[in-house]
Amino acid sequence: MPSIAALSRTLHGGTSVYRSRLDSLKVLHAVAQSSPPWWTPSCSSFLRQAESLSTSTSAASARRHPVIVVEGLDGTGKTLITRTLAEKLSGMAVSTPPPQFAEVRETFRSQEEVVARAFYSAANYIAAEGILAASQSAVVVVDRWWCSTCAMALANAHNYDSLPPSGDAVYRWPEDLPAPDAGFLLCVDEAVRVARIRKRAPEDFEEQRLSSQSEMRRVAMEAYRRTNMLTEVAAPTYRVAVNSILRLLPESGVVHCAAAFTQAELDSIEPF
């Protein structure tokens, strides 16, 4: 798809990090119009939903409860920590991309990088609509969001030395996407992370690359850090990580009365 690749470069300068919903839609429209054999009715349905969104940054002002995002590489315990944190805060756990797109996600992620990242970018906006709606009634804890889209796009396209410098616009949260109130980056020993992935399920292609390429992991983690939106949290166990996040939340303006795990509860489980 040379014309689509050229179009995408004009939108993101070769980083595959789309800066707006409109930019990602331009690429997805171009793909749809080219009628590739892999394009399915589910792809068309996803595109229509992304087009029909009304979510904007102004909608964030209507938010009643905080939105917290938990980020990190695969195998760092994001899902368990997200769910446990939501339980502690009497809130709701949400994952991105939304689970109803599991099938179409597999279709898009097997395409060239600029197309796959356009899907993930558009999915962030669809997720935002549900996240903002949920935040009207409870705290929302999100299992990865835009920062993961940014970090993985850069990790697939750059080595450490070629990363855009800190402060570059590529690391800024998109202006048309409502931002979370607090964000955390989970850090786990690499041997433990890989063991968790392999125990959980067979690795997909991107996870295999992360496991085998230390440079890719290094780039992804540095990209996460350069977003300047995430506080790093060591996660030797999920309970330790949850306690750390509960302690750090007030520093981001998220006041709560959730009870941390006791020392006995911390001691009662094995490390990841």
TrEMBL record:
GO biological process: dTDP biosynthetic process; dTTP biosynthetic process; dUDP biosynthetic process
A GO-annotated cellular component: mitochondrion
Recorded GO MF terms: ATP binding; dTMP kinase activity; nucleoside diphosphate kinase activity; nucleoside monophosphate kinase activity
Domain Thymidylate kinase-like: 70-245
Keyword Nucleotide-binding annotated: yes
Pfam families cross-referenced by the UniProt entry: Thymidylate_kin
Keywords attached to this entry: ATP-binding, Kinase, Nucleotide-binding, Transferase
Alphabetized SUPFAM superfamilies for the sequence: P-loop containing nucleoside triphosphate hydrolases (SSF52540)
Protein family per UniProt: Belongs to the thymidylate kinase family.
Name of this chain's protein: Thymidylate kinase
